[in-house]
Design goal:
single chain, mainly alpha, 5 helices, about 80% helix, MARVEL-CKLF_proteins, transmembrane helix, Marvel
């Protein structure tokens, strides 16, 4: 029994590394990193704006785990391409709005940094929404 587990383990590792090297894996990992940096910057200067980043961080980690473990074909009651598109599209709009509000208010350096990172996250989420848009054929 231990031999069969050892033989199946490299297949799992190959699947994980293949996803992490794919475009979607890189985008999700970058979204997680940007959300984490924005949460840190907002928690220092303007904690009232950090809830958006916390929610998007949780959702990005959730989708990252679902796609990395290859659970999306097994859970069929959710339309994963459309839910991922809606997540990234709404995140892009909310990050754009929040970043503009934060940058107009001016303030502490970490608040300006969070606003600038929010604009970069807007581009990242927007690109991810464009890439994952499930076109009906």
């Amino acid at each position: 029994m231990a031999d069969s587990e050892l033989r199946s383990a490299p297949g799992c590792c190959v699947h994980y590394t293949n996803f992490l090297r794919s475009q979607k894996g890189i985008l999700l990992f970058a979204e997680i990193i940007f959300c984490l940096m924005i949460v840190i910057c907002f928690s220092v200067s303007a904690p009232k704006y950090s809830s958006l980043s916390v929610v998007e961080l949780i959702l990005a980690v959730f989708f990252f785990v679902i796609y990395t473990c290859d659970l999306h074909p097994k859970i069929r009651f959710i339309n994963w391409p459309w839910s991922d598109f809606l997540r990234t599209f709404i995140a892009a709009i909310l990050y754009l709005t929040t970043s503009i509000i934060v940058l107009v208010q001016r303030g502490h350096r970490s608040k300006i940094t969070a606003g600038a990172l929010g604009l970069v996250a807007t581009c990242l989420f927007g690109y991810d929404a464009y890439v994952t848009l499930p076109w009906e054929k």
